[in-house]
Design goal:
single chain, mainly beta, 6-stranded mixed sheet, 3-stranded antiparallel sheet, 9 strands
Amino acid sequence: MSARYDWTINQGETTTLDYTRTESGGAAIAFTGTFAMQARTKYGGDKVLELAQSDFTIGTGSETNKVTITISADKTSAMTAPGKYVYDVENTASGGAITRILEGTLILTPEVTV
């Protein structure tokens, strides 16, 4: 089951989100493979944001269960309609298994100073 996180971002600003994956007992579960993220106007709606592998950083050493998601200022600026969207983040493990690790609402607040 994926974790739910409602994320508010500011248009025109770089934003990051750190996510750490653990078992119910607290043991770390290492990430492998690649990541992808999409935000849409609604489930099955128009895509307003798409992130690729270069927008994700997996932790190193003892933090291989941590991923940092970065949405650049260019990408948040390109989102021209502030509002509420849905998103999810998927991890495709080295063996090919796809797991949705995060999902929720993405709220884009408008930029006033441009």
